[in-house]
Amino acid sequence: MIIRRAADLHGTATHVRSEHWSSLRLLVRDDGMGFTITDTYLEAGMDQVIEYKHHAEACYCLEAQLTVEDLATGEIHEIGPGSLYALDRHDRHRVRARTRVRLICVFRPPLAGTEVHRADGSYEAN
Fold first, then answer.
1. Are 36 and 107 contacting, i.e. CB atoms less than 8 angstroms apart?
2. When you count CB atoms within 10 A of the terminal residue's CB, does the N or C end of the chain come out lower?
3. Which tens digits make up the pLDDT trace of 87-121?
4. Is 36 inside a domain boundary?
5. Is residue 57 part of a domain?
6. pLDDT higher than 80, residue 126
7. Can you give the residue range of the structural domain that contains 63?
8. Residues 6 or more apart from 6 whose CB is under 8 A from it?
9. What are phi and psi of 122, to 5 degrees?
10. For the purposes of burial, counting CB atoms within 10 Å of the CB of 118, is it exposed (0-12), middle (13-18) or buried (19 or more)?
11. Number of domains, the chain
């Protein structure tokens, strides 16, 4: 059984931060569960293009006002508390946070836990 408290992860290698977001990786690849769960905050004003070429991701919004734009179709989706968006086709997308956002995210396959977004929107190990 794995028991993990978010408060215990602050300042560890699996508490990944940038100027516009922070993410606590609650479950990672080495936990052997086959997926990752994160508790992620996006700062108000974040505007970033993201594409996961090797991961599917689902995000459940707890607190926020943000938009997610599907860059293949141009569709813009309003996301708020109680909404989920899933990037099931490695969708290249743009996230714009109007307020501070809190998301619970699931990645498959799991993340190592230290990855960060690169300027081209992909992920890389930190």
1. yes
2. N
3. 999 999 999 999 999 999 999 999 998 877 665 55
4. yes
5. yes
6. no
7. 21-111
8. 24, 26, 39
9. -85, 180
10. exposed
11. 1
**Distance, CA of 89 to CA of 122 (rounded, Å):** 14
Interatomic CA distance for residues 45 and 42, integer angstroms: 9
Is 10 contained in some domain? no
Four-residue CA torsion sign, 60, 15, 125, 121: positive
* Gap between the Cα atoms of 55 and 124, Å rounded: 12
Residue 122 domain-assigned (yes or no): no
pLDDT of residue 117: 62
DSSP per residue, 78-126: EE-TT-EEEETT---EEEEESS-EEEEEEEESPP-S-EEE-TTS-EEE-
pLDDT tens, residue by residue, 29-65: 999 999 999 999 999 999 999 998 889 999 999 998 9
How far apart are the C-alpha atoms of 33 and 27, rounded to whole Å? 8
Asked whether 6 and 38 are in contact (CB, 8 A), the reply is no
Whichever domain contains 105, its CATH number is 2.60.120.10
